[in-house]
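Worked example 3 (structure in, sequence out).
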């Protein structure tokens, strides 16, 4: 049986422990998502959730048929970017496991992990990544030994914007899937004239912004109803991401678009990606939903890559970095 790399994800709302075999086979994660009763995610409360849930997730992993401690080769963890208190819980857990199992520890970059799990799952080789998640919205592509951020949100992540809109209507986290349902209800049951549903569209060069559209969508929903506003919110915000992704494909000359992050679960975003790519002779890809949202398996997969390149993280270098940038991580594999 091939050895196993175990990955711990804890950047924000999700604590997740996943695995990959050293031949690249991904194994599903054990996850627990913190959902506040009201309001947004408080970092301290999310971290408390992660500490409380860690023992249960570990025992779920230990009891799995596809896992054996004797197969463990390394433990990786999200070193950043993310919420400090949450990152610290995952890092402590990973340090403890690596110490007690006497295997190397590898701190990895969460954003890069979204790319690597997508490359593993979809077989695309050198993509432009549209990383659309709760806290992050970036368009990323590799240039030499770094994944470069070509464009990104100047304020909040697109998923965070969707969650806030949902919350303004008392719909709890995660709001994205609920908005997707409401939008398709508007299309099938009501329909109507999209002319009345215009919202701001914020593309600034290669960058994006979502706080203006959030405010406008909340007032639109008061006039036209939540279903119509959800539909329009998806159309405008997704189109802005796809526009920047298209320009990234044009500038870099690359021909694969990869979607990642929780918002990449959305069928309408996937459809827009597919339409744009087919119009320019490119291809659109996305991993299974379980590997779009934050998950430990993607952290294990990037750990596997780093270990293959001979990298490991010494205990004294294992401090978390909440503002770790995508392009500060050297990419050495071909
Ligand atoms: P992540 O931060 O990558 O774990 O993803 C969580 C984010 O993805 C949250 O903001 C969710 O609202 C969003 N999300 C999950 N599923 C969907 C969906 N089907 N459509 C839009 N957003 C989604
Ligand atoms: Mg993420």
């Amino acid at each position: 049986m091939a050895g196993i790399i175990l990955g711990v994800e804890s950047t924000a709302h999700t604590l997740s422990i996943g695995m990959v075999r050293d031949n690249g086979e991904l194994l599903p994660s054990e996850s627990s998502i913190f959902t506040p009763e009201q309001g947004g995610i408080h970092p301290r409360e999310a971290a408390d959730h992660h500490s409380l849930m860690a023992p249960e997730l570990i025992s779920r992993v230990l009891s799995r048929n596809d896992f054996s401690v004797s197969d463990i080769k390394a433990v990786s963890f999200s070193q950043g970017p993310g919420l400090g208190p949450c990152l610290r819980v995952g890092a402590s857990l990973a340090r403890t496991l690596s110490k007690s199992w006497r295997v190397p520890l590898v701190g990895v970059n969460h954003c890069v992990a979204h790319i690597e799990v997508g490359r593993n799952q979809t077989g695309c080789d050198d993509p432009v990544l549209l990383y659309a998640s709760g806290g992050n919205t970036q368009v990323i592509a590799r240039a030499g030994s770094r994944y470069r951020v070509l464009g990104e949100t100047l304020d909040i992540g697109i998923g965070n914007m969707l969650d806030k809109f949902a919350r303004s209507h008392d719909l709890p986290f995660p709001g994205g899937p609920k908005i997707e349902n409401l939008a398709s209800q508007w299309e099938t049951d009501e329909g109507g004239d999209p002319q009345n549903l215009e919202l701001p569209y914020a593309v600034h060069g290669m960058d994006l912004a979502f706080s203006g559209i959030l405010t406008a969508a909340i007032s639109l929903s008061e006039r036209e109803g939540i279903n119509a506003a959800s539909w329009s919110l998806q159309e405008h915000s997704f189109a802005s991401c796809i526009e920047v992704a298209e320009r990234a494909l044009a500038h870099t000359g690359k021909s694969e678009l990869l979607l990642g992050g929780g918002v990449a679960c959305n069928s309408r975003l996937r459809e827009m990606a597919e339409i744009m790519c087919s119009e320019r002779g490119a291809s659109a890809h996305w991993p299974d939903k379980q590997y779009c949202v934050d998950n430990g398996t993607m952290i294990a997969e990037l750990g596997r890559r780093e270990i293959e390149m001979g990298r490991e993280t010494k205990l004294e270098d294992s401090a978390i970095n909440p503002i770790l940038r995508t392009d500060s991580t050297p990419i050495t594999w071909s």
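Notes: The pocket of adenosine monophosphate (ligand 1) is lined by residues 14, 133-135, 159, 162-163, 174-177, 180, 261-263, 265-266, 293-294 (CB under 6 Å). The chain has a mean pLDDT of 96.
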